[in-house]
Amino acid sequence: MFTATISGCSSWYEIEDYAEEYKDDLVTLYGRISGESSSWGVPSHDTLNRAISGLQAVCTGEWRRCGA
User: Where residue 14 falls among pLDDT bands split at 50, 70, 90?
Assistant: First the structure.
């Protein structure tokens, strides 16, 4: 999601399309960062939305202050 948003994607649909278009590059980047391989597919725009919404629901007050 980070690479998609800094590339100008502003909706879940655009982020999903970006991930599909750059899937091979993202898998390579994931491997370089984590040292592991990825066999997962690209999550749908709905899955991305749910995952980020879940993160926002559990963030702490301190994190909110830092992000404000």
Answer: very high
